[in-house]
Write a structure and sequence with these properties.
It is built from 9 helices and 6 strands, in the order E-H-H-H-H-H-E-H-E-H-E-H-E-E-H. By secondary structure, the chain is an alpha/beta fold.
Length: 231
């Protein structure tokens, strides 16, 4: 495999640094704010439903999540949520935007070891300003040849990225924690996929069917990518 790969693309959230944990913590705080109106399970269910309905409007990221929190609060409370509670919900979102960037174990070691042999890029989705902020805070920018923030990850968006990079499909390897966004679309266009699971996965990103492909690998941690690329 090594001799065919020219570009290694890395997902950002929960591949390079911690992210989904902050969303789960925020949901718990939100459920506490909504306690006068509904039980936690109902709050989580309605929030997910609202997020899915809003996906095409807001896309991925904290700002869209904040808007969905406010909408969910209105729905659950039948528009009786107070201005104070709305203020508390907004603060939940602001605190997420101010979280420090916590790199996952081994990330910088891997980037340093691969940088000389491959073009390394970031291929992520989410809010542009938030992803740029996290990249700056991470200290990882010098390792990357290109940063691509996508509205969504589909075969067509990966194909457009490959065209921009001026490489063949089989010369791209994508590394990420989401089977749905990071792996399945690249396999569909003949690129390579390396899945590095994170301990928390958003329901929307879960894939229940097994993936069978000669161009697919699952690693226990990102550190194992070094050995994989030496084969």
């Amino acid at each position: 495999m090594k001799q065919n790969i020219k570009v290694i693309a890395f997902d950002a959230d929960d591949t390079l640094w911690v992210n989904e944990t902050f969303f789960r913590d925020a949901e718990k705080v939100f459920a506490t704010i909504m306690k006068p109106f509904a039980k936690a399970d109902e709050v989580y269910r309605k929030l997910y439903e609202v997020e899915m309905n809003n996906m095409l409007l807001y896309g991925y990221g904290i700002k869209g999540f904040m808007l969905s929190l406010i909408e969910t609060a209105n729905v659950i409370s039948n528009n009786h949520v107070s201005a104070q509670q709305i203020g508390e919900i907004i603060e939940v979102g602001k605190s997420m935007l101010q979280k420090p960037v916590e790199l996952l174990d081994g990330v910088e070691q891997v980037l340093k070891s691969l940088q000389g042999d491959y073009r390394l890029i970031v291929a992520t989705k989410g809010d542009l300003l938030d992803q740029e902020r996290k990249l700056r805070k991470s200290g990882l920018l010098p390792y990357f040849h290109h940063i691509e923030v996508m509205s969504d990850k589909t075969p067509s968006t990966y194909q457009a990225l490959i065209k921009h990079l001026d490489i063949e499909n089989h010369e791209l390897l994508m590394v990420g924690n989401s089977l749905k966004s990071d792996i399945l679309p690249v396999l569909q266009i003949g690129s390579w996929g390396v899945h590095v699971p994170f301990h928390t996965t958003w329901h929307h990103e879960e894939v229940n069917e097994p993936i069978i492909s000669d161009q697919f690998y699952t690693l226990g941690s990102i550190i194992e990518l070094e050995e994989l690329m030496q084969d």
